[in-house]
Amino acid sequence: MEKMSRDGMQLIGIALPHKTFNANGQSAIDCGNHWMAFEKENVFNRIPGKVNNNVYAVYYDYDGDHTQPYRYFIGCAVAPGTAVPEGLDALEIPGGEFVKLTAKGVMPDCVGAAWQNIWQSDLQRAYRFDFEQYDERSADWQQVEVDIFLSV
Questions:
Q1: Backbone phi, psi, residue 6, to 5°
Q2: Torsion angles phi and psi, residue 32, rounded to 5
Q3: DSSP 148
């Protein structure tokens, strides 16, 4: 784990229309279905003003810790002031202090395992905005590297 400061980001993408939660595997179902919608609706190609080709999966608006409901968003970083196309949503991740760790292995198992380890760790999380960054290292789902940033 590596502690770092990050600047804020403006994202455009799609927000899960309701909060999800980790109990009974509900978030795995909701977030998995949300990824399928992101792909099926060709959201990546509908986002204007992208600053890079990374895709971010964001966990935010926590009702408490990881055992409580939270919101989920998938999108791309865009240039400030980019207009949000109809049917898409915007989200701003404020700058701040984060701890970065990297999940490595087969998708989606390696990311799920990383979150299990995070939940069981004694890391003092802020529960503001946590996110996964999918980049060129995430293309081969048999051997991915996904950076996870936790607000602290």
A1: -130, 145
A2: -60, -45
A3: E
Average pLDDT over residues 37-47: 97
- Percent of the chain past pLDDT 70, that is, above it, reads 100
Q: Which amino acid is at 19?
A: K
Where does the pLDDT of residue 26 fall: very low under 50, low under 70, confident under 90, or very high at 90 and above?
Answer: very high
pLDDT of 1 over the 90 cut:
no
Q: Is the peptide bond before 108 cis (omega within 30 degrees of 0)?
A: yes
Please report which helix (H) or strand (E) contains residue 33, including its range: helix 26-40
Scanning the structure block, which residue is given the tokens 């980049």? 135
Write the CB contacts of 140 (distance below 8 Å, at least 6 apart in sequence): none
Residues 6+ apart with CB under 8 A from 62: 68, 69, 70, 127, 128
Q: What is the pLDDT of residues 83-134, one digit of tens each?
A: 999 999 999 999 999 999 999 999 989 999 999 999 999 999 999 999 999 9
Q: Are 65 and 127 in contact (CB under 8 A)?
A: yes
Give CA torsion, residues 151, 35, 105, 133, to 10 deg: -40
Helix (H) or strand (E) holding 77: strand 71-78
Checking phi first, is residue 30 left (phi over 0); if not, alpha (psi -120 to 50) or beta? alpha
